[in-house]
Amino acid sequence: MLSGWLLDPAGNGGARGMIMPRSSSDVWGTEPGLCPAPVLFILLLWLFWVMNETCVIVPAAGSGVRMGGPVPKQFLELAGRPILAHTLSGLSRLAFVSMIVLVVGEGYEARMRELVGQWRCGQESGLPEVFFAAGGKERSDSVCNALEMLPGECEWVMIHDGVRPFASAGLMEAVWEGARATGACVAAVAATDTVKLARDGIVRQTLARDEVWLVQTPQVFDKRIVTAAYKRAVLEGWAGTDDASFVERMGVAVSIVQGERTNIKVTSPQDLRWAEWYLGAMASGRGSCG
Ligand code: C5P
Q1: How far is residue 22 CA from its own chain's centroid?
Q2: Ligand 1 proximal residues by C-beta, below 6 Å
Q3: Neighbouring C-alpha atoms within 13 Å toward the C-beta of 231
Q4: Distance 184 CA to ligand 1 centre (A)
Q5: Is 271 helix (H, G, I), strand (E, B) or coil?
Q6: CATH code of domain 50-284
Q7: Among 166, 135, 148, 147, which residue's Cα sits nearest to residue 64?
Q8: DSSP character for 265?
Q9: Which one of 34, 69, 113, 196 is at 20 to 30 Å from 223 when CA atoms are compared?
Q10: What secondary structure letter does DSSP report for 61?
Q11: Element (H, E) at 222
Q12: Domain residues of the chain, as ranges?
């Protein structure tokens, strides 16, 4: 088991140690001729930054049954690097991320540490710190474990699947900004096929296509909202397949940001082949416009 294998909140989130001014004269200064405005501006900027830390949870504890093969899909290689390493690289480019909690399946702890170590080697300095949490039976159990371990400084939570290596920085920033405006925001793409509800091979209902959205990660939430939502679901024995559905049950409105069709969740061998092609196309410039 991995339990307890994390996270010294005091030693991590508190690293930006906050020294508060004791009184307004400490801020403004008392000497005549000293211009206070830049000092105040920097202080406000710094306070805003410290009080609004964003932590990222990366569920990567799946067994990868649908992919088949000997190892879970997050460890499979794409262009010579594990899928998860691509995902971590994408996340670590975001300026607002202060820490990453990576959820690890039982029995894969050593392999995951090795993966993170190797990923770190290939990166520039200044990466957010990576901590580990224990995986659960379902994805929601994994996220729940990670939520319990977030430090108090963390005000915003971004949740992003370990097997979505192609979410762009622009998309992640847009979802983050969306959440800061509304409290909860997800990336989603509009359905292009008609969606029907069926049971026992019989169609029961056809949904209005212009109201159907296929939801992706990243999903970003006010930590208080998502934590309360998960707590309530645990008490009521309810589980959903994405994080927003927990929040929706609380009556909280979840906003949508236009997702990316290339932001696939690598699930099947076909996805893996497409992902290889896509990376190759991007590298040779065929995948970019102009
Ligand atoms: O299997 P699914 O499509 O739900 O996986 C989405 C993400 O959730 C993957 O990155 C997978 O590793 C993770 N997951 C998890 N714990 C589970 C099941 C899935 O962290 N029990």
Answers
A1: 36
A2: 59-62, 74, 103, 135-139, 142, 161-163, 265, 267
A3: 8
A4: 21
A5: helix
A6: 3.90.550.10
A7: 135
A8: -
A9: 113
A10: -
A11: strand 213-222
A12: 50-284
Residue from 142, 215, 243, 268 whose mutation best tests the ligand 1 pocket (most atoms within 8 A of CB): 142
User: 183 CA to middle of ligand 1, Å?
Assistant: 24
Q: Is 109 exposed, middle or buried (0-12, 13-18, 19+ CB in 10 A)?
A: middle
Six token digits for residue 69:
């093969």
Six-digit token pair at 98? Answer: 């202060």
**What's the one-letter identity of residue 22?**
R
Q: Whose CA is nearest to atom 1 of ligand 1?
A: 62
- The residue to which tokens 């309360």 are assigned: 228
Distance CA 178, CA 58 (A): 19
Mean pLDDT in consecutive groups of 10 residues from the start of the chain, 290 residues: 35 30 33 64 67 91 82 94 96 94 97 95 84 97 97 96 98 98 97 98 98 98 98 97 98 98 96 95 70
**What span, in angstroms and rounded, lies between the C-alpha atoms of 149 and 133?**
8
Answer left, alpha or beta for residue 84, where phi above 0 means left and psi between -120 and 50 means alpha.
alpha
Q: What is the pLDDT of residue 210?
A: 97
Under 8 Å between Cβ of 233 and 240: yes
